[in-house]
Amino acid sequence: MKKLIYFIAALAIVSCKNEPKDYVTFSGKITNKNSDSVVVRSRTFTKIIKVNEDGTFSDTLKVEKGVYSFFDGSESTSIFLQNGFDINMTLDAKMFDETAKYTGVGAESSNFLASKSLLEEKLYDQDFSSLDKKGLDTTFDKIKTDLTDFINKSKGIDTTVINNSLKGIERSITGNKNYFMGIAQLKEDLPKGSKSPTFEKYENYKGGITSLSDLKGKYVYVDVWATWCGPCKREIPFLKEVEKKYHGKNIEFVSMSIDVEKDHDKWKAMVADKELGGIQLFAPKNWSSEFVQNYKITGIPRFLLIDPNGNVVTPSAPRPSEEALIELFDQENI
To answer: Of 170, 212, 290, 330, which is most buried by a Cβ count within 10 Å?
Structure first.
């Protein structure tokens, strides 16, 4: 009888050991950490995990199978989680995408997502704005082929991840291609040397009103932005550096807010709080302002360059954070 009891007990222990976990064990180590915590989240799930002084972290998460965002307070990446996984992550926050690596049970799909992200970054790191419509067609067709081949050749990856990745290619290609096709069309409508659309009597933060004609004789680099626009605000430190570098040169930096009228005070407060330089203007009628309409601006931030004679240099100039902007200024001998 005792032997039978021992046998049943042993069998129960083995069964417990073989029973799949209903949670994910997620641990790792971050070098050069940006924060004392990280966040794992999706549209319906959020988990904050404490990061120790030495950069290590560990927690368990009950999740629905799928792709989640991992955010360290500065940058993010995608990871694939499913209950029963035991994943360890290593990361150097100074080279975020390049160093994200995963080991352990279920790590394959997360490593695939990290590699795919690096490939996408490489393929999309091109000067699309300099291409005509035919060049854009050729370039985006090649990007689509390269990404599709990479995904289809990957082995041992969860089919959900593969299928979502293939669908994501089409969305990404279509969105980016349509945007740059619009830019190409705009350059045909407003080619270099054509008369620039003007703005007349826009409110100046420092008082009074300003028109484009007031700036004749100098290059004008226009930043169309709004207080609610995250990408716009991320360009502010870079814009300040460019303004500083070109202080006293033959160029004016104009930041044109297209905030709605009810956010007028919010605009003034942000200009003061961020100590924004250059010429700060408030466009009437926001998106419907004549200048915005004539430049066919449908997304921000948008940057453009006008020459000293009031002619278009480019209706879609590089952002302050891009090295291509200084190259453009050099070409114009600013």
So the answer is: 212
